[in-house]
Specification:
With 126 residues, the chain is mainly α. Helix content is 70%, strand content 0%.
């Protein structure tokens, strides 16, 4: 009788401890994200490069007094179409990668390096 009570008690304690553990540490993706909804890092870097190029072009046009919502929308939709993604998927992935600041910083280093490489092609050498 005492052995059955101890076994039940031990089982109850193990069950209680298992149910109280931090389940989030076992999840690969944060809540709301799945493997299907995450854009790979290399692809995301390329998308971010294109977004920065579009932002720079739009900034130049705004500074020149030329502002067009249609053109802005067209340029962004061109990027999303090129990479077969939606605006919301892009924005969700920005949020996802920003949850890991170290990784996000490394990605931005790659973005900056690619932008600098592309810029070299536009600046004439002396």
């Amino acid at each position: 009788m005492i052995l059955k009570s101890r076994t039940k008690f031990l089982f109850f304690i193990v069950f209680l401890l298992a149910s109280c553990s931090n389940k989030e540490k076992f999840e690969v993706f944060p809540k709301g994200f799945t493997s299907d909804s995450i854009i790979s890092e290399p692809k995301m870097v390329c998308i971010m490069v294109d977004v920065h190029i579009v932002e720079a072009a739009l900034l130049i046009e705004r500074n020149e007094g030329v502002v067009s919502r249609d053109k802005t929308s067209m340029l962004y939709n061109g990027i999303f179409s090129k990479y077969h993604i939606s605006r919301s998927l892009y924005e969700n992935n920005l949020n996802y990668y920003s949850l890991n600041p170290e990784l996000f910083a490394k990605m931005y280093e790659k973005v900056i390096a690619q932008l600098q490489d592309q810029q070299k092609g536009f600046i004439p050498e002396n």
